[in-house]
Structure formats: structure tokens, C-alpha cells
Amino acid sequence: MTTDTGAELQRDPEGRLRHFLTLEGLGRDELEQLLDLAQFYVRTPGDMPPRDQTLAGRTVANLFFEPSTRTRVSFELAARRLGADVVNLDLQSSSRVKGETVLDTIYTLQAMLVDVFVMRDAEPGLPAYVAQHVAPHACVLNAGEAHVSHPTQGLLDTLTIRQRKGDLRTTSVAIVGDILHSRVARSTGTALLALGVGELRLVSPASLMPEAGELADASRYHSLADGIRGADVVMALRIQHERIPDSASLDIDAFNREWGITAENLRYAKPDAIVMHPGPMNRGVEITNEVADGPQSVIRQQVSNGVAVRMAVLATIVRNVQARNVEAGRRAG
Ligand code: ASP
Known about the structure:
By secondary structure, the chain is an alpha/beta fold. The chain folds into two domains: 28-149 and 303-332, Rossmann fold (3-Layer(aba) Sandwich), CATH 3.40.50.1370; 151-298, Aspartate/ornithine carbamoyltransferase (Rossmann fold, 3-Layer(aba) Sandwich). Helices cover 37% and strands 14% of the residues. The chain has a five-stranded parallel β-sheet with strand order 7-6-5-8-9. 43% of the residues are buried. The mean pLDDT is 95. Bound molecules: aspartic acid (ASP). Residues 144, 150, 183-184, 238, 278-279 line the site of aspartic acid.
């Protein structure tokens, strides 16, 4: 299976996004267009959800080979609010376990006229591999790929920061915790750097810090106080136990004492700093209840933005596919 990140593969010959596999290679204008469209779809709880028919006639399959709550539900709501039919496959227990290859599952679904595949997997490379094999009218969206990337999470985090802080170029963002195993840190960091964030800080113990070549323009800190001092945004991450072979031997209490975000150590950040977390939270480990539910927390706003961002990405990809089909029709006719 290819481990190509998919930066080139996700574009059609005209350079438009045909799949959504990674934020690598997306320029500032392209990211801002996606964020602007997402902002158009944002509503606050209590409002009527936005609805249009951009995906009418499309069928979206959510194929999640790893557990998910927020991402799966928000992709489903996003697709339905854009007028698509949606099917959700419980793949923990079905075909892959029985030995049916992923491509057989894809071809089976294509035969049922599914044309948008939203995929999450614990192994790197699956979304790009499937993208290379789907029918020309079909598209693949990455909903979380191993430790490698989670592009829609990167966009929703960036949108939340933009809503709260305005100009990213004057904003200092500290990502704290298990960065090494985090696809969220990679995608959010990639988006922020591409958009010219004022400062991106990676704050973690040496054992959970990625190599210097990754997110190379970020600064690295091995002390929580130093890492979040004066920051505008503090993002806590869950320890990714499922990607750590000997995770049972991790000293969770020691991690909590040194790296957990508490009301007390949050005072190192700016007084109006916001606190983010992609969820699911391990309350009492990387974040206390007081901070997670406190006035600086924007964790629920991130969740709301998740639906808007996924609407924007689905709408963009499907419009691009339609544009390509129209052009192909013109050439043929
Ligand atoms: N929900 C996020 C992800 O899928 C973060 C996490 O699981 O900790 O990567």
C-alpha cells in the first residue's frame, strides 16, 4: 500500500481538489476559501441547521475502521444537510475482519452507486490507496489516518482559532501533550503554518515529541510553563494509547502532574487565552474538569465547527467533480 501523503494524488489534472487526503500542499488562498465556506455554514446551537442541495443525488459512505464519535456523526450530518444519502458501515466487525479486502468493499459499494467515501483507518496509506482505485466520478475523504493526518480536524481547529483570535499572524498557538502520535497536531500544525500563524509551539516530553523534520517551523518546548507562557491558544491532546505499544507502562499520574492543563498552570498563558481539545478528553489526565468546562474552553465550539468544515469540504470536492464531468462532457460532445 502506498504511504504517499496524497498531496498530488488528491488533485485532478487541472489542479482542483478531487479527493481530500491531506492538508499538505494546500496554499493559503485554498485554505482560506475552505475556511470562508465553512464559516458560511456555521450556526450556533439553537439556530436551524443550514441546508442546501449541493450533494443531492450523491451517496456518501462512512467507512470507519477505527472508533469515532464526533468525526463520524459530523460527516453524516454534514452530508445529510447537503442533501446526500448516507450509509454508515460498522467495520470493526464486518468485511475486513472476514477477510474481504478493502477494495472489494469499495467496489461493492460503488456497485450500489456510492460515490463519496469517507474513511478512517489505523494504518497509514489507506485513503490514498483507495483514491488510486476508485471510479473516476468517485472521491475519497480522509477522516483520520493513523498518526499521519486528520485534515478536516486541522481545518476546524484553525477555523475556531480564527473566529476567536482574528488575525492568525499575530496569534501564538501551543499544542501540548502526545504530539508524536497525534494526527491532529500534524494537520492542525500544517494548516496554521501554511496560514502564517504568528507562532506554533510544540510542548511535550522528549519521548512524545516528533522528529525535528516534522512541523519544522514550530518551536519546541520540554517544559509546560515555558511552552504556554504568553500563548493565545493552548491545545491539549489525549495520549494516543492505541498507537503506543507499551502504553500500559506509561506513568499517567506523572504525565498529569507535569503536562496536564490545570486552572493553575493556565495562568502562564495570556489571560484571554482559549483552551482547545479535539476530543475525546481524558479528564484528569491531560486536562482538568475545571479547565475543560471553564470560561476559556472552546471545545464545544470546535465540535460545532466540525460540521461546518465537513460541509465545506464535501461541497468543494463534489463541485469540483461536477465541474470536471461537465468539461469532460463538453470535450466528448
Ligand atoms: N479524535 C481525534 C483523532 O481522531 C483525537 C483523539 O482521538 O485523541 O485523532
